[in-house]
Amino acid sequence: MSKAFTKEQDGAEEDEPAPEPEQPQGVKNYITPAGYARMQAELKRLLDVDRPETVNAVHWAALNGDRSENGDYIYGKKRLREIDRRIRFLIKRMEIAEVVDSAGQDQDRVFFGATVSVRDAGGELRSLSIVGMDEVDPTRGRVSWVSPIARALIKAREGDTVMLRTPAGAEQLEVVEVRYLELP
Q1: What tens digit of pLDDT does each residue of 121-132 get?
Q2: Closest by Cα among 90, 114, 134 to 177
């Protein structure tokens, strides 16, 4: 059948954002205090600033007449759906979040919240922090505690060598330093 004769779903957009990642079943949603505070701040901003501004813009655009060709109205409704989707996601994630404050611990082993310096086989030194799934930021060296590198490092001590298995092959990493810092 030709695409021309199929009914499009109401409200369906071609550039619809990908759904938010789901929590793996049986896995806790650990999060650092700073990560939880960032989620709270984002939720507050969405509820107190972004959503009311967007509702006002949609209301104004709706008053301008024909909604079918009103770009401000169409974009505003799309933006409102995105904001509402993000609000629902944040609320769900915060409800199941388990805040773990490991800053200042005197541990010599790697656990959630640790900032670990590792040296690869090529001698390159890099630092990474093991954080919750909602806090991942590779550019800042933040990796999820369920990621392959974090799983390889968990329970390792300074001076240990761990094996990181990746699709590209196995790689040995030496644990140089383990610290528990307050993550901003």
Answers
A1: 888 999 999 999
A2: 114
